[in-house]
Design brief:
Blueprint lengths: L2 E5 L2 E4 L4 E8 L7 E7 L6 E7 L5 E3 L7 E6 L4 E6 L8 E7 L2 E2 L3 E6 L1
Parallel strand pairs: 2-11
Antiparallel strand pairs: 1-3, 3-8, 4-5, 4-9, 5-6, 7-8, 9-10, 9-11
């Protein structure tokens, strides 16, 4: 059974950085990607970034390019999302996802 648990969220000021982590278990490292999504209050959940277990291919939404970096630690099966130069519009609950499995999310709040 796949389990995903996010951590690393918090309250920061604009311009700060945060690194989110997604601890995984039970994930089969085949041709599926690990993804980060986010959902702001009153808005739909949106894709942020993805990384494949095999190789180094990554994908980012436009708002994440140049500020966010997705990575993985194969030794611990952990997925990271490094977020730099955070903006108030980045405020959201951030979720880790693979296939149809989701973590409970971690809250990121950026104050101006």
């Amino acid at each position: 059974q796949v389990q995903l648990v996010e951590s690393g969220g918090g309250v920061v000021q604009a311009g700060a950085s945060l690194r989110l982590a997604c601890a995984t278990s039970g994930v089969i490292k085949d041709n599926y990607a690990m993804r980060w999504f986010r959902q702001a209050p009153g808005k739909e959940r949106e894709f942020v970034a993805s990384i494949w277990w095999r190789g180094s291919s990554t994908t980012y939404r436009d708002f994440a390019k140049g500020r966010f970096t997705i990575s993985r630690d194969d030794a611990t099966d952990t997925i990271y999302l490094q977020m730099d130069n955070l903006k108030p519009e980045d405020t959201a609950v951030y979720y880790c996802n693979t296939r149809d499995s989701w973590g409970p999310g971690t809250q990121v709040t950026v104050s101006s």
